[in-house]
Amino acid sequence: MKVVVAGAGIGGLVAAEKLGKLGFDVTVFERAASLDEMRYDWHDDVNPSVFRRLGMKLPEESFKKRSWTFVAPHGTVVRNFRQDEENADYSVERRPLNAMLANRASAVADIVFGATVESALISEGRVSGVRVNGAEVAADLVVDSLGVDSVLKKSLPAEFGVSVHDEDEVFVAYRAFYEKNPDAPEPKYVSKAYLKHLGEAGISWAIQDPPGKLVNVLVGRLGKMDDATLSRALASLKEENPTIGEKIVRGGTVCRIPVRYPATRMVANGYAAVGDSAYLTIPMLGSGIASSMVAGTLLAETVGEFMSRGVKGRELFDVARLWKYQVKVFGEFGAEHCGIDVMKRGVLAMDDGIIGWLLGSDLLDNDEIGALAGGGMLRISPAEALRKVRKAGLKKLGTLLKVNAMLQKSLVAYRRGKNIPRNFNEATARAWERRLLRLYGKETRS
Ligand SMILES: Cc1cc2nc3c(=O)[nH]c(=O)nc-3n(C[C@H](O)[C@H](O)[C@H](O)COP(=O)(O)OP(=O)(O)OC[C@H]3O[C@@H](n4cnc5c(N)ncnc54)[C@H](O)[C@@H]3O)c2cc1C
Asked: Which of 225, 373, 417, 443 is least surrounded by CB atoms within 10 angstroms?
């Protein structure tokens, strides 16, 4: 049985390794000319637990992340967030991570570089292969790991129900590592994250990279970011962070990150999406890499379970079987992402003054601030909510009710995500998808 993995993304490489180990004939098609030319020559935040879960070593050159300082819109209020040292994220270099995953995959799969996937081949109501560099390649299963703007997904017929994001569901992010200005004084805060930076829908950050040679800068905006917005944000960051020098040493590119709840449909007959093409990313949460790796594993686990029950041939890759992979994703982290997505959008849509007030007051404790600003589920019991109302005073009741409405909506999204039908049936799956989509004002999509 032939499996094609489209794109040597993080989840794709993990899926290739795991599916190869199950005995499938796996080929990975990657557009970049070589591993070295793959994107993202920098480091990203990943929780080390994912490496333990997958029985892998944390790649070399990784270092423990330091705590954040959140800056309210217009830079007036700052709030430190201490992360839990035991469960701290690590900054992991991409190149060694890609190399490690590609090495493991290539022991059981072929990786073909310089191979551009153009579209899916469709026959008899299923994905039956891909068009690559103008040639048709047949496959029993196609794993889509082409990232947020996957051409494969866009080429699927609408009746497969695998929807594509709207433009406001993408975070456009500029990332650059600047040489540190040797004349600048040591900064008071080493990891600053600007929420709704300059009052715009997005975030920016300036992080002093250990061992102190570079400053890691990000400017991200929801939907779109024109040159003027980027220049304004960079000028403001440089003014407030004199350690940012002139020379860009790494990065300096604009990329796209999905800011959507996980895809409500990740699978079709002969097709499964992993990673950013299934929208398994929550920016700032350090989630994209870990979620993609876990998704690649869950996909192979699902297929392996059906094999051990005696299911054979193409039936292994029918939508009803692959749906079980999606159920596992939602059970493990997808439902949580639905809740976080609602909260993130809620924070970005919040009045600047409310964010400043919340950060500046002692109403929220360390973990609550971390969840609210950095991305994580924030659950506040009714008794605790009442205590906060008493503490804030009745004058703030209106504001607290707005925040509470957002938190409640986030919990509803989490619960709806968890409520994913265990068994696939087109009508029930669509009804579940519609209930989730309604929370995002996207009810017409599916
Ligand atoms: C600025 C920035 C900061 C980030 N920070 C973090 C972080 O701190 N922590 C974290 O966990 N995540 C972070 N992410 C998200 C993370 O990069 C992704 O979630 C993760 O890489 C998984 O994405 P992916 O592998 O699915 O897709 P991608 O990384 O987009 O990989 C897709 C692959 O497919 C290839 N490809 C695309 N189109 C074609 C085609 N037509 N034919 C063949 N090959 C193709 C690409 O070359 C690429 O190799 C960040 C992303 C960005 C942009």
From this structure: 443
